[in-house]
Amino acid sequence: DKKHLVEMARKNAQESLARTLAESKEQTRLLKRVAEIFDLPEPPKRIEVYDNSHISGAYAVGAMIAAGNEGFLKKTYRKFNIRQSSTDDDFAMMREVLTRRFERLIGEDPQHISGLWPDLLLIDGGAGQVNKVVAVLSELGLGDIAVVGIAKGPDRNAGREHFFLPGRAPFSLPPDDPALYYLQRLRDEAHRFAIGAHRARRAKDIGQSRLDEIPGIGAKRKKALLHHFGSAKAV
User: Comparing C-alpha atoms, which of 215, 216, 197 is closest to residue 205?
Assistant: First the structure.
């Protein structure tokens, strides 16, 4: 029985290793293709994708996801509660997020040895958005980071995305290009993460009330008061 368990464990380990190696090989191939498409000097070791989520400027959250040769790097995802006054200016939000992200990285790792510096930024947007992001990076002295915009085609039709790079005409990829699906996944993952962060912030803010401002009122007493009186206004 013990020998059988050991054999099962060995077989499972071999199959798991084979899957991991196959996924890594496929990821390497995709990153090489991304480098070809965007004229990068080498396959990117780290791609960062940014997105914002809000309701007419309320509960605004910026999100950053990252991916590399190992797939999605979920431990390095970051969310940013937008601090500026209520606005629906998406680029002003993006400027705040990028500035906070890279000013902190410059302070923590000026020598670029942490592995947390991106080789490529993927932005949901067209030429105007790309040019503004490039300007922010230049202001921070980071003009060597490649920036690419990805925008859905006519009628926001996924699968007909156009790509925007500084100094190049917009272009699209063949529908059967594996890199197109990969880049769509990156964009969609950033969108998913941004929406989740936005919903969490909205739920937290809605859960707060004027009772939270009263010294000595903790969560238990707040719950009892609301249960008895029905609302903060009634209290």
Answer: 197
Write a three-state SS string for the chain.
Answer: CHHHHHHHHHHHHHHHHHHHHHHHHHHHHHHHHHHHHCCCCCCCCEEEEEEEEEECCEEEEEEEEEEECCEECHHHCEEEECCCCCCCCHHHHHHHHHHHHHHHHHHHCCCCCCCCCCCEEEEECCHHHHHHHHHHHHHCCCCCCEEEEEECCHHHCCCCCEEECCCCCCECCCCCCHHHHHHHHHHHHHHHHHHHHHHHHHHHHHHCCHHHHCCCCCHHHHHHHHHHHCCCCCC
Name which of 155, 165, 70 is nearest 125 in CA terms. Answer: 165
- CB within 8 Å of 57: residues ≥ 6 apart: 86, 87, 88, 89
Task: Tell me the pairing of strands 146-151 and 71-72.
Answer: unpaired
Mean pLDDT of the chain: 89
pLDDT of residue 207: 65
pTM above 0.90, yes or no: no
Tell me if 48 sits within 8 A of 120, measured CB to CB: yes
Q: Worst-scoring range by mean pLDDT, 28-32, 43-47, 103-107, 198-202?
A: 198-202
CA dist 94 and 100 (Å) reads 10
Mean per-residue pLDDT, 1-12? 94
pLDDT confidence tier of residue 25, bands split at 50, 70 and 90: confident
In contact, 123 and 187? CB cutoff 8 Å: no
